[in-house]
């Protein structure tokens, strides 16, 4: 009898021990992070606005081709851009055939009515399908596209659509679509009153008349180091803090690290424990990057995806911030306006971003160094917003811009693109966004063009 009681008591003690162990492991505060620490990201509370891949993919410019070598360019957020893009997004494209780039006379086609959608980098077709109605096609679904050209063929008045491979030597023609010649004609009419551009012999578009954009001062808010520490580490209490003499603070849990530049409010998070096995699909990695930002800081504004362009950064993605129509381009003195993530097999290994962001209801002021030209604000999406004034800055064009290019671009360097951008500078609780021209060179580098040393 005693032996049975001893056995029963022992079994009860073992059962109680198991129950206690369960609650210690699975029910204590923070236990979920410990259990899941090797399997995925911290499932932290959102501390910023969420976004989706559909809203992060859009053309950085839209070129409307008119007759007689006339062209105009619309940028995101402008009324004309939005109207044309909405029409294209409603159309469906399918039954693709692959052609050599040299099979078409693009210089001739440039003189026909048409629209070009230009992406800043090659977008995988599998992601582009989320923004446009592209019927799945095994012929080019594994490729990436950096340009889409729609035009009306003058001989039979039919619309043709070409998707340009980012590799640069192949185009895909959609032979089944429901765009009409009237859609292209309406786009051309919208471009008739826009700023006129000429196509240069080296392959970029030069405005014939000045364009306008606001010079803007915006108030800033900031994520705190404590917020990011709690948000990024499984057990923030286990992190160590290292203060460097140059204003750098480092937080680490012996595996992951968070480096914060306290002067520029720039952070770099590193997780070297990314898996080394499994599939490494680019599109899946992009989606993982978007989910990661949703959970770890969010999207304080309008951003667009920029893919890596070389084999060394094929798993690196940049998300560039826009203010109204133009992107914000960082400077050596001030990192701002973008996020950079490195992703391996759906796991983020590096995450860089500014902890500063545009306030939700910013106080805005705009100044100008010249009077605005008629109609330019509408064409470039630069109309006033909130309590901002409508005074605008003129960006040089024509011969003045060519002279700037001649004196500021090094000899031997060739321009492949020219775009208006915002150059940020940090003030006391504010960021000043100054519109300037930026030249993209053939080697992939970029350079600001300024009319004077004071800009």
Automatic annotation (TrEMBL):
Name by which UniProt lists this protein: Regulatory protein YycH of two-component signal transduction system YycFG
Determine the domain of life of the protein's source.
Bacteria
Which Gene3D superfamilies does UniProt cross-reference here?
Answer: YycH protein, domain 2
Q: Which organism is it from?
A: Paenibacillus hunanensis
Q: Where is the Regulatory protein YycH domain?
A: 3-375
């Amino acid at each position: 009898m005693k032996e049975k009681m001893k056995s029963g008591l022992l079994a009860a003690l073992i059962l109680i021990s198991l129950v206690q162990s369960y609650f210690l492991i699975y029910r204590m505060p923070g236990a979920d992070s410990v259990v899941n620490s090797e399997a995925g990201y911290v499932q932290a509370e959102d501390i910023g606005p969420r976004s989706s891949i559909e809203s992060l993919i859009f053309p950085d410019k839209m070129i409307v081709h008119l007759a007689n070598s006339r062209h105009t360019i619309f940028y995101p957020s402008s009324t004309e851009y939005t109207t044309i893009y909405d029409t294209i997004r409603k159309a469906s494209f399918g039954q693709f055939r692959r052609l050599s780039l040299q099979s078409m006379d693009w210089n001739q086609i440039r003189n026909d009515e048409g629209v070009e959608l230009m992406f800043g980098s090659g977008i995988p077709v599998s992601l582009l399908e989320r923004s446009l109605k592209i019927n799945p096609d095994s012929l080019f679904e594994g490729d990436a596209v950096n340009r889409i050209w729609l035009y009306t063929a003058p001989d039979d008045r039919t619309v043709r659509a070409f998707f340009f491979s980012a590799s640069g030597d192949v185009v895909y023609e959609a032979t089944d679509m429901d765009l009409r010649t009237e859609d292209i004609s309406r786009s051309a009419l919208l471009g008739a009153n826009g700023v006129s551009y000429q196509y240069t012999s080296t392959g970029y578009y030069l405005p014939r008349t000045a364009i306008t954009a606001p010079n803007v001062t915006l108030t800033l808010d900031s994520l705190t180091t404590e917020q990011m520490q709690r948000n990024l580490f499984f057990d923030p209490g286990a992190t160590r803090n290292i203060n460097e003499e140059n204003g750098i603070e480092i937080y680490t849990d012996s595996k992951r690290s968070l480096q914060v530049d306290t002067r520029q409010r720039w952070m770099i998070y590193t997780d070297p424990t990314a898996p080394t096995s499994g599939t490494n699909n680019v599109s899946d990695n992009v989606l993982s990057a978007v989910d990661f930002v949703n959970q770890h800081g969010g999207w304080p504004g309008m951003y667009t995806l920029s893919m890596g362009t070389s084999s060394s950064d094929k798993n690196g993605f940049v998300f560039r911030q826009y203010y109204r129509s133009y992107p914000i381009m960082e400077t050596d003195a001030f990192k701002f306006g973008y996020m950079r993530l490195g992703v391996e097999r759906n796991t983020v290994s590096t995450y860089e971003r500014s902890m500063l962001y545009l306030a939700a209801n910013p106080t805005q002021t705009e100044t100008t160094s010249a009077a605005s030209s008629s109609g330019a604000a509408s064409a470039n999406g630069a109309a006033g917003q909130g309590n901002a004034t409508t005074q605008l800055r003129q960006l040089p064009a024509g011969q003045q811009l060519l002279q700037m290019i001649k004196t500021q671009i090094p000899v031997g360097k060739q321009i492949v693109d020219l775009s208006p951008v915002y150059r940020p500078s940090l003030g006391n609780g504010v960021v000043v966004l100054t519109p300037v021209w930026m030249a993209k060179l053939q080697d992939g580098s970029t350079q600001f063009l300024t009319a004077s040393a004071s800009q």
